[in-house]
Specification:
With 349 residues, this protein is of the alpha+beta class. It contains ten helices and 19 strands. The longest helix has 22 residues. The structure holds zinc ion (2 copies).
Length: 349
């Protein structure tokens, strides 16, 4: 694990991790509270007494330090060992924590490193892929299950709840984000929140959901039509579906993330819907549901084998409705393995 930090160790002599996902990634400790400090010589896990036993069991190869004040303990350690520069997750620190650490460890420089630290989780191991695959499979089954449940008169909130209940019942420890189950004109909101609105005949229904299995996230979206789809609904749906396939076809080892986004975006643009696709094509998924790499126009990253990304173009027309189709894929040498096996043909219920 320490060799993941080789790049950081060129300019720093320690790495301080405070987010639950990065602490878990490097140490195996899933309690989420405290901090992990890795230096060239030491691997410390600082946590409070509620977690000592768990930490000792999970964090193999780590010295577990029980403390009610991990900031002070960290500062003391840095001082005693003469560490001069420590990389840290600048997006996972409160201003109060940072100020306290700076004050107590005034000899040490803290180097903002959220991106470099985040990059270490991009390429997944076989074990991680297996967990994500199984998490996504629970999602696929939830989608198949919910199709029977979607009818005119059912509330969006109940759809969301039913999906979540199914995923929990089938092995998930929780959801990877708040389930999106929206219908009708609400589907023009890319991240709409389920309401008491009842599904009506002729509605688009967009379901975007994911679960957590053994710490790893899944994520998928399907949009269906209740009743017969109108010509306009079909046109929008088929545009998104074709764009999604173009995105999937672009995803492979060596591809630039920005180019994958561009491939799908250019197609939507050519169909006249460019102004209605206003988010990125996709994002990395792992211990977090949104992690690196992003398939976005701004990304400078290049895909590598065993990265896991979503491919999720959408068209959202205010006052009318929207469509998003999202699969989760693992990048391979020549393409990608699609982890979401459920159909993307337009379903008219
Ligand atoms: Zn999603
Ligand atoms: Zn997503």
């Amino acid at each position: 694990m320490r060799k993941k930090f080789d790049g950081l160790f060129e300019k720093c002599d320690g790495v301080l991790l405070t987010s639950s996902h990065n602490m878990r990634y490097v140490s195996g400790f899933s309690g989420g509270e405290g901090a992990v400090l890795i230096t060239k010589k030491h691997q410390l896990l600082l946590t409070d007494s509620r977690y000592t036993e768990q930490a000792q069991t999970e964090a193999k190869g780590f010295e577990v330090v029980e403390t009610n004040d991990w900031i002070k303990e960290t500062a003391d350690f840095l001082g005693q060992n003469g560490l001069k520069a420590v990389a840290f997750e600048d997006d996972r620190f409160s201003v109060a924590e940072y100020n306290k650490l700076k004050e107590l460890a005034s000899e040490c420089e803290f180097v903002a490193s959220k991106t470099e630290i985040g990059k270490m989780r991009m390429v997944k191991t076989a074990e991680e892929l297996d967990k994500i695959r199984r998490a996504e499979e629970i999602g696929c089954r939830a989608f198949e299950y919910i199709l029977d449940y979607i009818k005119p008169g059912v509330k969006e909130r109940d759809l969301a709840l039913e999906i979540e209940y199914f995923m929990r019942k089938n092995g998930a420890s929780g959801t990877s984000f708040d389930t999106i189950a929206i219908s009708g004109t609400n589907t023009s909101l890319p991240h709409g929140v389920p309401t008491d609105k009842k599904v009506e005949n002729g509605d688009f229904v967009t379901l975007d959901f994911g679960c957590v299995l053994e710490g790893y996230c899944s994520d998928m979206t399907r949009t269906i039509v209740v009743g017969k789809a109108s010509d306009k609904q079909k046109r929008i749906y088929n545009t998104v579906k074709a764009a999604q396939q173009i995105g999937l076809d672009a995803i492979k080892k060596g591809a630039r993330c920005a180019d994958c986004d561009k491939a799908a975006r250019d197609y939507i643009d050519s169909c006249g819907y460019g102004q209605y696709f206003r988010h990125s094509l996709g994002h990395g998924v792992g211990l977090l549901v949104h992690e690196l790499p992003n398939l976005s126009p701004k990304s400078e990253l290049v895909l590598d084998e065993n990265m896991v990304v979503s491919c999720e173009p959408g068209i959202y027309i205010p006052g009318f409705g929207g469509v998003r189709i999202e699969d989760l894929v693992a990048v391979t040498k020549d393409g990608c393995e699609n982890l979401a096996r459920v159909t993307k043909d337009l379903i008219e219920l």
